[in-house]
């Protein structure tokens, strides 16, 4: 394993690489493909934190836990709720901030606050030539030149190895309230999501957790100051007379546990089966659960569907007419050859290949991972 | 501002180009009369003008594709244009180019409230997107002050923001999908009604690419339900430092205002003289707006007022109703008009880390004295996006040049303290030559390589964003 200690060592490692590199942060997601492992875990530490400007700059290998703990001292947070998939994937390691952005990992608050890519303000990275490059900065509004920051977010290391990220943080809400409905059918869950999202009440989560024996919990989250949250919880309920709420959770710990379970896909931990993550138009969720047999966890008001299915099921084929895209997050037996990422239409695949050829002309950065 | 010499070989093709365009466009969509092409000679950066060789006004994605295929085959540069309100010269033509205007493409293609999206042709104006959904209680969040006139096309190209983006984000955070025509005429669909588009984030790099990667013809935008209400509070301070500290404290407190606007004394005085909004004559004014129900607004405003009081404000005025709210916003909203009344002005757009606000304002004051031109500051304080307005007299020999030199110094200052050259207006031609202050040659090269992929012949808006010296080799006629 190659373990550079700083950015210039990282650049040298990439420049001198003789073959493919498998890039890792905390290695909590596992690697696919062949080649030497290049870990950025050695590039660690927060170099700037300005709570009054809501910004932080950290080395890419800094553990998310370290960042969260530091933010906690100022009652702030990573509002995009990056997932911790160790439980789902049965892995160890410590998720890093670089990994969270490289995978554009966005949890329940995606519907209101945005995705990881929306919080990433600037990057320093090493491209496939071994050159150190930067884009963006540490300010919240920046349209100076092309936004390569967005391109790096979600590129899974295939365009460059991030060495440093600067990002926006947000205050942590004083109070959280979660409405819980038990065992709704799918259409009822969708109408709860729509009722919640199409309201003025600033919903910060709309999800559905599967439980044992076909049970489920449909969840809607509100955050803010206590009186305001209580007011909005009341308003929301009165707007949904047809689906009375089963439980109102106002205990911080209990709410937190529910939303962590959504974020980290807890119901599928320690269970066999392939796990797919599909991003679809929210109302298409009904078609997905209809066309794919298996267990489903919903997030993003129905727009994000985690499906645990028999590895023999070709989920992409089943959803061919639905639109959106699916990622194979946890392959089951015999799925080694199934592409992790949805193959793209030819014109987009050509653009992506063109960008890869520019940023990684030797094709050594996680080759084949994204197509 | 230098522009490349027009390519005479391209200009020589004018007649054959017109003939080819007439085969794919209606008669009135091809504009070649020099009297009429003058309508496209500039955008809102009016100091620079040059009529294009031709202008075309297609009505559909297919027509845009036909136009680009023809121009691509003949090696003719194309400058896309929305409403022409760019303050950076993004839509400035060259004498050998075709202006491709999307103004005729302004239909709403789909509204889907269940999924909270609207799909529009990109010639549609920003405000009329909200207009199409407000009866159902929805709005499109990014709200540039030019929203009555500017088009979604330009908003996407410039990644435009507005006063309310502190809470709702800028264009890129509210854009879900595009239909885009590449320079060779190929049509690509990126993203859609789902929240995250698959593969590399091409949408992210297209937004803000200033018309250099493709012509965006349709867009899927996220719409949001309107809040129950909104009201501002006006807070005056006798020092910029204290006002800056107050902004920081508000942000840290956990309240997320939709807008925090900041005006300094020169700006307050000019606005007051123009709009008579009853602003106090003080060093710094903040307008902080929050949203929610009446009770929620009261609660948030009282928290903000408590924070402000700890900083000994010279004025505190809470809006109790829509009328009072209107009066508080009146002065701020007329800032540009007020400046225009007094003088010619140049509007800058740098962003700085919020913590450096007092230092930057002080140094802008010093620079203003040094160059002998007055500068008024109005800006989105919550996110550090400054709009210093330099007042000058265009009719006085040399003042435009002095003004530009001062502007460049101010933007370099923004970069020096950890900020950037442009927060929401874009680089265009205006800040092109300053790019090497923010980025190394290699950093810029990485951006040029992106254009190489989308537009290998460098025909789309080629003379913008990057210093001409940096792009010269790529722009050579093929
Ligand atoms: C009074 C005033 C106030 C303003 N306030 C704000 C503000 O608050 N916030 C803010 O962000 N901006 C503001 N602006 C700047 C300007 O309005 C924005 O940049 C706006 O988005 C430009 O839109 P447009 O349609 O006029 O674009 P244009 O000026 O026509 O073009 C702008 C750029 O977009 C490209 N382009 C146009 N159409 C397309 C297309 N179809 N495909 C690809 N590229 C295309 C052009 O080539 C050019 O580079 C203001 C301008 C004025 C005059």
From TrEMBL, chain A:
The keyword Cell cycle does not apply. Keywords: FAD, Flavoprotein. Signal peptide: none annotated. It comes from Tritonibacter litoralis. GO terms for molecular function: catalytic activity; FAD binding. This is FAD-binding protein. SUPFAM superfamilies: FAD-binding/transporter-associated domain-like, FAD-linked oxidases, C-terminal domain. Residues 1-172 form the FAD-binding PCMH-type domain.
UniProtKB/TrEMBL annotation, chain B:
Residues 48-226 form the FAD-binding PCMH-type domain. SUPFAM superfamilies: FAD-binding/transporter-associated domain-like, FAD-linked oxidases, C-terminal domain. Gene3D superfamilies: 3.30.465.10, 3.30.70.2740, Vanillyl-alcohol Oxidase, Chain A, domain 4. Pfam families: FAD-oxidase_C, FAD_binding_4. One of its GO terms (molecular function) is oxidoreductase activity. It comes from the Bacteria. InterPro entries: FAD-bd_oxidored_4_C (IPR004113), FAD-bd_PCMH (IPR016166), FAD-bd_PCMH-like_sf (IPR036318), FAD-bd_PCMH_sub2 (IPR016169), FAD-linked_Oxase-like_C (IPR016164), FAD-linked_OxidoTrans_Type4 (IPR051914), Oxid_FAD_bind_N (IPR006094), Vanillyl_alc_oxidase_C-sub2 (IPR016171). This is FAD-binding protein. Its cofactor is FAD. Signal peptide: none annotated. PROSITE patterns: FAD_PCMH (PS51387). Keywords: FAD, Flavoprotein, Oxidoreductase. The keyword Cell membrane does not apply.
């Amino acid at each position: 394993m190659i373990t550079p200690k700083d950015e210039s060592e990282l650049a040298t490692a990439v420049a001198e690489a003789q073959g493919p590199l498998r890039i890792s942060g905390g290695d909590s997601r596992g690697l696919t493909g062949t080649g030497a492992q290049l870990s950025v875990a050695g590039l660690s530490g927060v170099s700037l934190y300005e709570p009054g400007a809501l910004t932080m700059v950290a080395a890419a290998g800094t553990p998310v836990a370290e960042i969260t703990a530091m933010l906690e001292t100022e009652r702030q947070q990573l509002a995009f709720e990056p997932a911790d998939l160790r439980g789902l994937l049965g892995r160890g390691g410590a998720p890093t901030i670089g990994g969270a952005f490289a995978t554009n990992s966005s949890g329940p608050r995606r519907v209101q606050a945005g995705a990881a890519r929306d919080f990433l303000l600037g990057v320093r990275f090493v491209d496939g030539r071994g050159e150190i490059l930067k884009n963006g900065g540490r300010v919240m509004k920046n349209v100076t030149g092309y936004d390569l920051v967005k391109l790096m977010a979600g590129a899974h290391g295939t365009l460059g190895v991030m060495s440093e990220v600067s990002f926006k943080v947000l205050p942590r809400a004083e109070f959280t309230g979660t409405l819980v409905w038990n065992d709704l059918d799918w259409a009822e869950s969708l109408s709860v999501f729509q009722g919640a999202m199409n309201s003025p009440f600033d919903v910060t989560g709309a999800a559905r957790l599967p439980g044992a024996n076909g049970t489920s919990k449909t969840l809607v989250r509100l955050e803010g100051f206590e009186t305001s949250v209580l007011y909005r919880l009341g308003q929301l309920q009165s707007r949904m007379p047809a689906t009375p709420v089963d439980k109102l959770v106002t205990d911080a710990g209990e709410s937190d546990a529910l939303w962590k379970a959504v974020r980290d896909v807890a119901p599928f931990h320690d269970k066999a089966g392939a796990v797919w993550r599909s991003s679809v138009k929210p109302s298409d969720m009904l078609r997905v659960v209809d066309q794919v047999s298996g267990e489903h966890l919903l997030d993003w008001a129905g727009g994000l569907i985690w499906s645990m299915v028999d590895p023999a099921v070709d989920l992409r084929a089943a959803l061919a007419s639905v639109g959106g895209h699916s990622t194979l997050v946890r392959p089951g037996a015999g799925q080694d050859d199934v592409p992790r990422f949805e193959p793209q239409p030819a014109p987009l695949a050509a653009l992506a290949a063109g960008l890869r050829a520019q940023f990684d002309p030797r094709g050594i950065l996680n080759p084949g991972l994204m197509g | 501002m230098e522009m490349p010499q027009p390519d005479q070989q391209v200009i020589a093709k004018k007649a054959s180009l017109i003939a080819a365009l007439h085969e794919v466009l209606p008669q009135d969509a091809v504009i070649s009369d020099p009297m009429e092409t003058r309508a496209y000679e500039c955008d809102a950066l009016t100091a620079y003008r040059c009529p294009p060789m031709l202008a075309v006004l297609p009505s559909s994605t297919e027509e845009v594709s036909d136009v680009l295929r023809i121009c691509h085959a003949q090696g003719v540069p194309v400058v896309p244009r929305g409403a022409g309100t760019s303050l950076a010269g993004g839509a400035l033509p060259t004498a050998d180019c075709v202006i491709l205007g999307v103004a005729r493409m302004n239909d709403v293609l789909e509204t889907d409230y269940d999924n909270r999206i609207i799909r529009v042709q990109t010639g549609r104006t920003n405000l009329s997107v909200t207009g199409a959904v407000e009866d159902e209680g929805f709005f499109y969040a990014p709200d540039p002050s030019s929203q009555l006139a500017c088009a979604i096309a330009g908003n996407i190209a410039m990644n435009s923001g507005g006063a309310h983006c502190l809470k709702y984000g800028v264009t890129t955070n509210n854009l879900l999908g595009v239909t885009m025509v590449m320079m060779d005429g190929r049509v690509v669909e990126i993203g859609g009604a789902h929240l995250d588009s698959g593969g590399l984030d091409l949408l992210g790099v297209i937004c803000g690419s200033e018309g250099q990667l493709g012509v965006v013809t349709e867009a899927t935008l996220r719409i949001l339900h309107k809040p129950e209400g909104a009201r501002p509070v006006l807070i005056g301070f006798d020092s910029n430092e204290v006002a800056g500290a107050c902004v920081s404290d508000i942000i840290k407190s956990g309240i997320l205002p939709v807008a925090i606007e900041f005006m300094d004394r020169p700006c307050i005085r000019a606005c007051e003289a123009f709009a008579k909004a009853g602003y106090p004559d003080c060093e710094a004014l903040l307008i902080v707006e929050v949203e929610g129900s009446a009770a929620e607004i009261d609660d948030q405003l009282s928290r903000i007022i408590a924070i402000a009081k700890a900083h000994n404000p010279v004025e505190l005025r809470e809006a109790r109703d829509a009328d009072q709210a209107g009066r508080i916003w009146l002065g701020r909203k007329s800032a540009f008009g007020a400046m225009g009344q007094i003088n010619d002005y140049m509007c800058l757009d740098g962003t700085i880390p919020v913590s450096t606000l007092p230092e930057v304002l002080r140094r802008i004051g010093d620079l203003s004295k040094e160059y002998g031109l007055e500068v008024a500051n109005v800006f989105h304080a919550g996110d550090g996006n400054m709009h210093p307005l330099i007042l000058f007299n265009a009719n006085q020999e040399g003042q435009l040049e002095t003004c530009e030199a001062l502007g460049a110094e101010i933007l370099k200052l923004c970069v020096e303290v950890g900020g950037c050259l442009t927060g929401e207006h874009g680089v265009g031609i205006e800040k092109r030559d300053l790019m090497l202050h923010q980025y190394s040659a290699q950093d810029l090269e990485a951006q040029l390589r992106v254009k190489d992929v989308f537009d290998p012949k460098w025909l789309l808006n080629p003379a913008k964003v990057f210093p001409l010296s940096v792009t010269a080799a790529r722009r050579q006629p093929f």
